[in-house]
């Protein structure tokens, strides 16, 4: 994927749909440390099902990945996202200026 394509994807995931702000918060947490859905839910004080929904969107778009199974699943920033982390920060900066 080229830089322009990842930027379009990031705009879609974080600005083009409802819940983008929560997905940014989730991704920011996972950039710092791998976490499970329960931990993310506690940190962000959001419902478990809400977090699970956003996790599924981030995972579907290859921005995060998981290791483990059932309640032991930990989520990480994907290698793909790590490669384009500067593009993520660029989109995030622009979004914060638009608010």
Give the helix/strand layout:
Blueprint lengths: L2 H13 L4 H13 L4 H8 L3 H13 L3 E4 L6 E4 L1 H5 L1 H14 L1
Antiparallel strand pairs: 1-2
Helix pairs in contact: 1-6, 2-4, 3-4
- Strand tally is 2
Shape: globular
Any idea what the radius of gyration is?
13 Å
CATH top level assignment:
Mainly Alpha
Largest sheet: 2 strands, antiparallel
Low-confidence stretches: none
Question: Helical element count?
Answer: 6
Kindly state the mean pLDDT as a whole number? 93
Give the full name of the CATH homologous superfamily: Winged helix-like DNA-binding domain superfamily/Winged helix DNA-binding domain
The ordered H/E elements are: HHHHEEHH
Supply the helix-strand structural class: mainly alpha
CA(first)-CA(last) distance: 28 Å
Q: Provide the β-strand percentage band.
A: 5-15%
Query: Strands across the major sheet, in which order?
Result: 1-2
Total domain modules: 1
CATH topology: Arc Repressor Mutant, subunit A
The second-level CATH architecture is: Orthogonal Bundle
Q: Approximately how much helix is present in the residues?
A: 55-70%
């Amino acid at each position: 994927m080229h830089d322009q394509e990842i930027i379009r994807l990031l705009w879609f995931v974080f600005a083009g749909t409802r819940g983008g702000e929560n997905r940014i918060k989730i991704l920011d947490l996972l950039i710092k440390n791998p976490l499970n859905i329960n931990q993310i839910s506690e940190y962000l004080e959001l419902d478990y099902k809400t977090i699970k929904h956003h996790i599924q969107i981030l995972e579907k778009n290859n921005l995060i990945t998981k290791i483990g199974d059932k309640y032991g699943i930990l989520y990480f920033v994907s290698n793909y996202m790590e490669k384009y982390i500067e593009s993520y920060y660029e989109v995030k900066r622009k979004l914060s200026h638009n608010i």
